[in-house]
Specification:
Strand content: 5-15%
Strand order of the largest sheet: 1-7-6-5-4-2-3
CATH topology of the largest domain: Aspartate Aminotransferase, domain 2
Largest sheet: 7 strands, mixed
Shape: globular
Helix content: 25-40%
Number of strands: 12
Structural class: alpha/beta
CATH superfamily of the largest domain: Type I PLP-dependent aspartate aminotransferase-like (Major domain)
Oligomer: single chain
């Protein structure tokens, strides 16, 4: 039967691939809706009685491929994708906590994570204790005294790359009946999977994407735990867009190549800075002088791509240093192919005060560098020139 043209444009001819003709790169399923052949099969899917896809906020083939890849890399069974790293953190906290629960967090954690725990969860009746990631005796004491739902931490920490004792933290949490939730963004998908972490969180905006042009987040855990969270997370609605998932999947093809090059560059930059007279202290776990060096060697296959250091002087020298750099852009985030710098005035964390503020090791001269894939000689020469100009009279 002939179809009118204004109908045909909304129902174009279907193209089916033969079973032995497959695309090397999976297509982008840029469709919000999927359909089955009849209402009975649709109902079976909605009741969980068959596989398939129906609505992309709940599940999408492009997202599913990336979810399965990331879960396998992290050594877990399942994954949920979100539109940003912070969305992964907030969705996890909201899905796992309820009024009357208690959460342990750490002063060295990512600023938005601290905000979500100290402000958003608090409004819903979830209490918290804030410690230093170094205070493991304090962690044991709090867990012994207060029933706790989860312990949320990260390693290496942002921005000074402290190394959390993952084995001890997870053991303490589980002994107390709490879940261990690790923001593993700095370490990447290939690290820490052998530890009994219950939930891994990642900002896909960083190393997964790798090019600074797409945002995303991941919640990675056992199949059972993801199943218990899925309804809450998909109903909150932070689902990643299929095109963004495709771009992140493409970025993952060069994940290990980029990460290895960035780690090698970072270690060389750290060694250069450690020998510079205008640098008081370098925070990079690849240096034997780093307090977490031994633990990092035990826990990780590499030392990461972030180098922080304490500059002589303070905010003014930090501004002059950052402004003088040619190959480091002043920008937030990390993990992309280009090198970035965050001068002291932009590092934040000022809502943490007193002894906990001191424990963060952030000083008026702390600078964070995210190292890219450029030639390390160009990076060290750029740093050398900028340091000279920062202190020029």
């Amino acid at each position: 039967m002939a179809v009118k043209k204004n109908t045909r444009v909304n129902h174009p001819p279907e193209v089916r691939l033969p079973p032995d003709s497959r695309p090397l790169v999976a297509p982008i399923y840029q469709s919000v809706k999927f359909s089955f052949d009849d209402s009975v099969e649709t109902e079976r899917f909605l009741h969980g009685e068959r596989e398939g896809f129906f609505y992309s906020r709940i599940s999408n083939p492009t997202l599913r491929q990336l979810e399965l890849l990331l879960a396998e890399l992290q050594g877990r069974e399942d994954c949920l994708l979100t539109g940003s790293g912070v969305a992964a953190v907030s969705a996890t906290l909201l899905a796992l906590c309820r009024a009357g629960d208690h959460v342990v967090a750490f002063a060295e954690s990512y600023g938005p994570t601290r905000y979500l725990i100290r402000n958003l969860l608090a409004r819903f009746g979830v209490a918290h204790t804030l410690l230093s990631i170094d205070d493991l005796d304090g962690l044991e004491r709090v867990l012994a005294e207060t029933p706790t739902r989860l312990v949320a931490f990260e390693s290496p920490t942002n921005p000074v790359t402290k190394i959390a004792d993952i084995a001890r933290i997870t053991e303490c949490a589980h002994r107390a009946g709490a879940l261990a939730v690790l923001d593993n963004t700095f370490a990447g998908f290939h690290n820490h999977g052998r530890y009994p972490v219950d939930v891994f969180l990642h900002s896909l905006t960083k190393y997964a994407s790798g090019h600074g042009d797409v945002m995303g987040g991941a919640i990675i855990a056992s199949r059972e735990l993801i199943a218990s969270m899925r309804k809450d997370v998909t109903t909150i609605g932070p689902t990643l867009d299929p095109h963004a998932a495709f771009l992140i999947q493409r970025g993952m093809r060069t994940y290990f190549l980029r990460y290895e090059r960035q780690c090698a560059n970072a270690l060389r930059v750290a060694e250069f800075l450690a020998a510079h007279p205008r640098v008081r202290r370098v925070h990079h776990p690849g240096l034997p002088t780093h307090p977490g060096h031994r633990l990092a060697r035990e826990q990780m296959s590499d030392f990461g791509t972030v180098v922080s250091f304490d500059l002589d002087g303070g905010v003014e020298q930090g501004d002059r240093f950052a402004d003088a750099l040619e190959y480091f852009s002043i920008s937030a985030s990390l993990g992309s192919t280009e090198s970035l710098v965050m001068p002291p005035r932009l590092l934040g964390g000022f809502e943490v005060a007193g002894a906990l503020r001191e424990a963060t090791l952030i000083t008026p001269g702390t600078v964070r560098l995210s190292i890219g894939i450029e030639e390390e000689a160009d990076l060290t020469q750029d740093l050398s020139r900028a340091l000279e100009r920062a202190f020029a009279s």
